[in-house]
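Students often ask why inverse folding is considered easier than folding. One informal answer: many sequences map to the same fold, so there is more than one right answer. In these notes we will look at a single instance of the problem. The structure comes first.
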C-alpha cells in the first residue's frame, strides 16, 4: 500500500471528470445544463499548481540565485511535460475540422494553419490573435496558456517580495481583481470578445495562483497549531472538508453567476487549505498506484475536447450520458497509450538511441 496521501489525487480525478462533463455540455445541444458552472474548477487547478509551486520555493529557497530565471525554468519544465498531450489534442481537432472543410481555399487553410501554430505553442492567452475563444479548436487549453504566462511572475514576486507578497498579493489582489470583474463584466470568470483573452484569462490565472500560494502559507501555519491536532478537531475538519466538496459539486450543478461564482472560488480555497494542511482524516486515505492513476488527469484534460468532438460528430445519435461516459473511457485509454509511447521515446527507447547515435 502506498504511503502517499491519495486524497489530493482523488480531487484531481473528480475535478477532471467535472470539466469533461462541463465541456461536453457546451458542445452538446442539451448538455449545458449538466454542470453549467463547472468552469470554476479551472481555478481549483490553478490553486493546486500555486500550492505546489509555493511548496517548491519553500523547499529550495536556499538554492535560488536568480529569481526570475528560476521561476521561468520551473514553469517551462512543467509545460514541457504536457506538450506531447496538448499537441495530440490539438492535432486531432484540426484534423477533424480539416476533413470537414466546405472549401479548401488558400485563406481558410492559412487561417487554420496560423491558429494551429498559436495553439501548439500555447499562445492563445497572449492576445496576439483574435479575442474570441471560439476561434481556437482546443479551447480548454487556455488554462495552460494562462499558466505559462502568469506562473513565472507569481513565483518571481513570491521570491522577491516574501512577506509583502504573502500579505498583499496573496490575500488582497485576488479579491480586488475578482470584485472588479464582477462589477465591470457581471461575473468573476468573464469571457467577452471586447475584453480579450489576455484580459480574461491571465488575471484570472494570476489571482488563483496567488490564492494557491495562500493555501500553502495557511496550510503550513495550521500544521503548527497543536489545538487542531486533537481527535475532535480532526473530525470536524474532515466533515467540513467533505461538505465543502459536496457544496462545490452542487453549485456547479445548479449554476451560479457573479458573487455566486466568487463564493464557489473561496469554497474551493478553504477546502484546499484543509486538504493540504494534513489535519483532516482524508490524509489517511491510501490507494495503491494512485500516482499512476493521477498521472492520467492532465493528459485527459488536454485531449478530452478533441475526443468528445469526434464522439459528437460520428456517434451523435447516442444519448448524451452515454456519449460522455464513452468520451471519458476513450480519454483514459488514449491518455494511457500516450503516456506509454512518450515514456518509451524519452526513456529507454528512441530518444536514447538517437543520443547514442
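Output (designed amino acids):
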Amino acid at each position: 500500500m502506498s504511503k502517499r496521501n491519495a486524497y489530493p489525487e482523488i480531487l484531481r480525478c473528480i475535478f477532471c471528470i467535472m470539466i469533461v462533463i462541463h465541456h461536453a455540455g457546451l458542445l452538446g445541444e442539451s448538455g449545458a445544463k449538466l454542470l453549467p458552472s463547472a468552469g470554476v474548477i479551472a481555478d481549483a487547478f490553478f490553486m493546486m499548481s500555486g500550492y505546489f509551486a509555493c511548496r517548491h520555493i519553500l523547499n529550495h529557497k536556499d538554492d535560488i540565485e536568480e529569481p526570475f530565471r528560476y521561476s521561468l525554468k520551473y514553469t517551462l519544465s512543467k509545460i514541457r511535460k504536457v506538450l506531447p498531450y496538448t499537441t495530440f489534442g490539438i492535432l486531432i481537432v484540426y484534423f477533424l475540422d480539416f476533413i470537414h472543410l466546405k472549401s479548401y481555399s488558400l485563406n481558410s487553410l492559412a487561417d487554420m494553419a496560423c491558429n494551429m501554430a498559436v495553439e501548439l505553442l500555447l499562445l492563445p492567452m497572449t492576445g496576439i490573435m483574435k479575442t474570441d475563444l471560439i476561434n481556437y479548436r482546443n479551447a480548454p487549453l487556455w488554462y495552460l496558456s494562462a499558466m505559462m504566462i502568469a506562473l513565472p511572475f507569481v513565483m518571481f514576486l513570491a521570491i522577491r517580495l516574501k512577506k509583502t507578497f504573502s500579505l498583499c498579493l496573496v490575500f488582497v489582489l485576488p479579491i480586488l481583481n475578482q470584485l472588479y470583474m464582477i462589477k465591470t463584466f457581471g461575473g468573476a470568470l468573464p469571457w467577452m470578445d471586447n475584453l480579450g483573452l489576455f484580459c480574461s484569462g491571465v488575471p484570472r490565472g494570476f489571482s488563483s495562483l496567488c490564492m494557491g500560494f495562500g493555501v500553502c502559507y495557511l496550510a503550513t501555519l495550521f500544521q503548527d497549531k497543536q489545538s487542531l491536532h486533537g481527535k475532535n478537531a480532526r473530525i470536524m475538519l474532515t466533515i467540513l472538508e467533505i461538505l465543502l466538496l459536496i457544496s462545490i459539486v452542487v453549485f456547479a450543478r445548479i449554476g451560479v453567476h457573479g458573487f455566486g461564482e466568487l463564493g464557489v472560488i473561496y469554497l474551493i480555497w478553504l477546502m484546499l487549505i484543509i486538504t493540504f494542511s494534513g489535519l483532516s482524516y482524508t490524509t489517511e486515505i491510501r490507494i495503491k498506484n494512485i500516482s499512476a492513476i493521477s498521472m492520467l488527469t492532465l493528459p485527459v484534460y488536454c485531449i478530452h475536447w478533441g475526443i468528445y468532438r469526434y464522439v459528437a460528430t460520428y456517434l451523435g445519435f447516442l444519448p448524451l450520458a452515454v456519449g460522455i461516459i464513452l468520451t471519458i473511457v476513450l480519454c483514459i485509454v488514449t491518455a494511457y497509450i500516450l503516456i506509454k509511447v512518450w515514456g518509451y521515446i524519452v526513456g529507454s527507447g528512441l530518444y536514447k538511441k538517437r543520443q547514442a547515435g
